Amino acid sequence: MATLTFHGHAACTVRTDDGTCLVIDPFFDDNPASDVRAGDVHADYILVTHGHGDHLGDCVSIAKRTGATVISTVELVGFCSAKGVKRVHGMNIGGAHAFPFGRVKLTPAAHGGSVAGDDGTHTTPCAGILIEFDGRRFYHAGDTALIMDLQLLRGRVDVALLPIGDNFTMGPEDAARAVDMIEPRVVIPIHYSTWPIIQQDPEDFKRLVGDKALVEILAPGASWDF
Ligand code: NI
Ligand code: MN
Predict the structure, then answer these.
(1) What is the CA(18)–ligand 2 centre distance, in A?
(2) Could you tell me the residue range of the domain that residue 46 belongs to?
(3) Domain for residue 139, yes or no?
(4) Ligand 1 center to residue 58 CA distance, Å?
(5) Residue 115 lies in a domain
(6) What stretches of the chain show up as alpha helix (H) in DSSP?
(7) CB-proximal residues (5 Å) to ion ligand 2
(8) Ligand 1 center to residue 143 CA distance, Å?
(9) Does any domain span residue 224?
(10) Residue 164 contacts residue 192 (beta carbons within 8 Å)
């Protein structure tokens, strides 16, 4: 059994059948919605969609403490290496790689790409992250607008994490249209209500999705087995 735990905003952990711990977008200590502190997070791999502070978050400190491998775009793992992270794996959008826990593919997203705390020296576009492991297909959309590229994921995703906060990413209506495009079995809304600017009622999103997918609304700290 795999377990997804949502930690507020876009941060989540996935524990695979063999106990490998994947942390995605590790934004904890400055995340008003987080249920955990970065210093308490276990990680074998850290996957990061992009360099904005609410996604890169505590990546460097967690990677240094745990020895976890950081997986992201080549530019962003280069930034992490320069900050002292020992184990990194750089990829780029459209590329996939087989890791011991499963196969990771970076997928297109439309969003800005500056790196937090680096004065824009390192920039890279946001990616979505598609992970195939133990017969499951798990997709974290990162920060993205509604784009036609999402149609390429149709039939390839079982569980989709989609932003619904609006202002910086898709809002509920566009995220519901993304569900039409991707056709996941289960969709979990993320990237909302962390701050007033992205306040949303996930039940509105659930109504918009209707019976097109099962909408699992997870409060920060809640886990879901799949
Ligand atoms: Ni962002
Ligand atoms: Mn964001």
Answers:
(1) 30
(2) 3-218
(3) yes
(4) 15
(5) yes
(6) 53-56, 59-66, 74-82, 172-182, 202-209
(7) 54, 143
(8) 5
(9) no
(10) yes
What is the overall mean pLDDT for the chain?
97
CB 22 within 8 A of CB 5: no
Query: Residue 74 sits in a domain of what CATH number?
Result: 3.60.15.10
CA 123 vs CA 54, 74, 90: distances in Å = 15, 10, 14
pLDDT in tens, 133-170: 999 999 999 999 999 999 999 999 999 999 999 999 99
Quote the ligand 1 centre to 119 CA distance (angstroms).
15
Instruction: Assess whether pLDDT exceeds 90 at residue 212.
Output: yes
pLDDT, residue 117, reads: 76
Per the structure, how many domains does the chain have? 1
121, pLDDT greater than 90: no
If one counts every other C-beta atom within 10 angstroms of the C-beta of residue 226, the result is 14
Spacing, Cα 121 to ligand 2 middle (Å): 19
Q: Is residue 225 part of a domain?
A: no
Binning pLDDT at 50, 70 and 90, where does residue 124 land?
A: confident
- Angle between the N-to-C axes of helices 202-209 and 172-182, in degrees from 0 to 180, rounded to the nearest 10: 40
Measure the CA–CA gap between 148 and 94, rounded to whole angstroms.
15
Q: Distance from the CA of 50 to the center of ligand 1, in angstroms?
A: 7
